[in-house]
Structure formats: structure tokens, C-alpha cells
Amino acid sequence: MTKPSVRALKAIPLFTRLRGDVLKSLASQVQARAYTNRQVIFAEGARCEGLYIVQAGQVKLLRASKDKEQLLAIVGAGEPLDLVPFLDDGPHSLTASARGPVTLYFVECAAARALIWATPPLLAAVMSSVSARLRRLATIATDLAFKDVTARICRVLLDQADAEGEHFRGGIRLRRTLSEREFAAMVGTVREVAWRSLKKLEKEGLVKIERNQITLLDVERLAALA
Amino acid sequence: MNVSPDDLRSIFLFAHFDAAALAEVCQAMRARDYAARALVFAQGEPSPGLWFVRRGRVRLYRTSAAGREFTLCIARRDRLPCLGGCPLIDGDLCPVTAQALEPATLYFLERQRALDLAATSASVARLVSRVLANHARHLTRLSCGLALRGSMPRLADLLLTYADERGNATDRGIELDLDLSHELLGTVLGMTPQMIAHDFLRLEREGIVDARGKHIVIRCIERLAKMV
């Protein structure tokens, strides 16, 4: 696979503030790596091999326990996978798994660490990204503690509507890009419970579930439940 | 109140600072005392800086619209001692409320001073990055515990942590004293006090634990570990 151009790297949010010469040096160290659907890129607790940034496709960031998993995020092009090990030299804090075919930019760990700590704007961007993750994690944990499954489902649907919903007169249309299992893992429950709650919302006229899409029919009531 | 280098070094985040770096931070810091239940800062307020717990425990929590509280972390000198990491980096509002659980002493570093020090001192930059990483790891574990485990495994996990940290092996088992009321324990585990009481009762009926108020005897730690 070909190495990325300086321009391609500059378009990645983590690298936007880097100078041209730093980007040029970085470009020479970046490898492109391809992964197949469901391939584990790294596992929680594993030694950090390097810095991973999504070039194309999607990656699931999750934690698993026994036969259950919690989907913490799905990251796409331009987003880093796990920056925490670069701040404390520790192992990976979560598992990353390819969602469909994925290509990643990869920089070997020692080189990435040296670059981050020698480049203040990059260190600031890494800290900022981890800080954003902290806020998101605090909200996920609080939602799990305070809210029931139905409320958490409403929150996931509304977040999805914000990010990629198609507004029309009758509501907001969402493409069903998550499998039932992924949707449940995002909500923090098992598939059967998530599905039952979703059907209950449909029965109450708040959503309409179809094979390829979910339509939010009453956003105000969904927001009140979330 | 001024902060002495020896006092500051007793907080593990500063243990590897050299004398010059430590002196520079000490000069910028002020010690503040808080009474039990006093608020250090409140969720939704602008954050004036960083705090480090020197003495006592500080609870970081969020309150739901219905008034329920959920404790995201209990900060103390030897565990997650730094408060205010997120707002320091992103300049946004405090994501949680911080309240002293008992009389506490915190070392305070004003935000701009902290940012200046992080920009000029590699030790301080390392410290801030470590604080963010520690909290990210803690919150990842916490949210997964809530999502993937029922109430009993969460309680069992907490009892095992207490056993590790403060348990005494006696002929009855491992004895320990909880330093949290059932109500507070509920806010830590995302459970109601009734659920806590119910789970303790179950552990007692199964002969795994004896609970007399805050005094706990873990009679069979292997069986407790299997519940996690």
C-alpha cells in the first residue's frame, strides 16, 4: 500500500496543527494496514504496538466481559483508535475491531510516542482527544446508572439523528447501519432487551421500525424519555 | 497556606519530580482546607484550575434531573488524586460536582498557571497526561462494569477491592471496615440502598459474607471472586 501524502495527513484532525516539515517526516513513518471485517486490531490489556488512525472504513471500540460486550464508540475516517497508552505508557484500555473492511494509518509505537512528546501541538491534540473521551465516558457511565434501557435507546437514536438523520415532514429517518447486537451493545444491554424496548417505542407511536431504517416519529417525546 | 515539597511529593503523581520542578509547582500552589460535605466545585460551573487531594477523600458525582446521585470516583491521595483535568484541557465547564467526604486538604493550582507550567515543564506535562489517562481508564472500567455486570458482581468487585486495600486476615475470614454508608455505596455502584441491603442479605445467606453495619467479614473470598 502507498504511503499517505502530507496533504492527506494534514486533513486528519489530530495532525491539523502540525508544521509541514513535521508532517513530511511523519508521512515517511506511516504505514497503511488493512483489516477484514471483525478482525481484532488490538485487544484490551495488550501492549500498545503503535498509533492507529482510520483511513477508510469503521472500527468498533469496545470492552468485553464473558459473552457480553459494550460498544463504547464506532470511529470512522480521520479518527484515532486509542490514545490513552501514549499518555501513560500503559496497555490498551479497550479492544478495537474492524467493522467491515478497514484501512488504517499506523505509526510504530516508539516513533509515535517520540513524535507526540517532541511536538507540543500534537501532545495538546492528543490530550484534547482523551479529554473529549473522558467527558463521553462520564456521560455513558451516568446514563447507565440513572437511566433505564428505554431511555438509553432514546438517547442513542437521538444522537444518531443528530449525526446522520434525514429530516422530513413526518420525522427523522435513520439508516439501520448497526446490527441488532451492535445496537444493544451501544445501549449497554443484551439484544433481546433492546429489541423489546424498541418495539415498545414503536407500539407507542414514537418510532417506526423497518428493515433498513428507523423513523423517529415523535422527537419531542423521545427527548423527554431520554 | 503554602505547600511544602515534602508534602507535595507524598502525592504519588509528584513522586518522581526532581527538586527544581517540585519547587516550581509548590510556589504556584496553595493549600485549601474543606470541611466534611463542603463543595469544592459544582457541575456546570467554570473550572478555576486543578486540585490535588492531600488529605481526606473527595467524591466526584453527577446528579440526575430526579435528584439521584451517581459517584463517578472517590479521589484520595493514593488513588485518582487530581481533580479538574478535563476542564483544564478543553476549557469547558466542570463535568461533575466535587464534595469533601470528610475534612480534607487540597492543593490548588490556578488554571493559567497550570497551563503555563505544563507548557514549560516536562514533568508537569507528563503529570497532566497521566491524570487524563488514569481517569480515562477508570471511567472505561466503570461504564463497562455498569453495562456488562449486574448489581451483585459490582458489589462483589468492590468488596474484593476493599479486601485488597484494607482487609485483615483473621480466623473468621478477611475482615474490613467499609468507609461508605449504604447510601453512598449505592451512588458508587449505581444501585439503591435497598438493592445493596438485598445483595448483602444474599451474600450472608450463602455464607460468603457476614455484614454488621460497616464491618464486613468475607468468609469465603474464592466464592466472592467467582461472583465478579
In total, the number of strands of chain B is: 12
Structural class of chain A: alpha+beta
What sort of overall outline of chain A do the alpha carbons produce when their principal axes are compared? elongated
Written as H for each helix and E for each strand, in order along the chain, the element string of chain B is HHEEEEEEHEEHHHEEHHEEH
Tell me the name of the CATH homologous superfamily of the largest domain in chain B: Jelly Rolls
Give the count of structural domains of chain B.
Answer: 2
Strand order of the largest sheet of chain B: 1-8-3-6
CATH topology (level 3) name of the largest domain in chain B: Jelly Rolls
In CATH, what is the class of the largest domain in chain A? Mainly Beta
What is the oligomeric state here? heterodimer
DSSP summary, beta strand count of chain A: 9
Largest sheet of chain B: 4 strands, antiparallel
**CATH level-3 fold name of the largest domain in chain A:** Jelly Rolls
Q: Tell me which protein chains meet in the greatest interface and how many residues each side has.
A: A-B, 36 and 34 residues
* Low-pLDDT residue spans of chain A: none
Tell me the β content of chain A: 25-35%
What is the CA-atom radius of gyration of chain A, in angstroms? 19 Å
The CATH architecture of the largest domain in chain B: Sandwich
Annotate the secondary structure layout.
The complex is a heterodimer of chains A (226) and B (228).
Chain A: H1 6-10, H2 20-29, E1 31-35, E2 40-42, E3 50-65, E4 68-75, H3 84-88, E5 95-108, H4 109-118, H5 120-146, H6 149-164, E6 166-168, E7 171-175, H7 180-187, H8 191-203, E8 207-209, E9 213-216, H9 219-225
Antiparallel strand pairs in A: 1-5, 2-5, 3-4, 3-5, 6-7, 7-9, 8-9
Helix pairs in contact in A: 4-5, 6-9, 7-8
Chain B: H1 5-9, H2 19-28, E1 29-34, E2 39-41, E3 49-55, E4 58-63, E5 69-75, E6 82-83, H3 85-90, E7 97-100, E8 104-110, H4 111-120, H5 122-148, H6 151-166, E9 168-170, E10 173-177, H7 182-189, H8 193-205, E11 209-212, E12 215-218, H9 221-226
Antiparallel strand pairs in B: 1-8, 2-7, 3-6, 3-8, 4-5, 4-7, 9-10, 10-12, 11-12
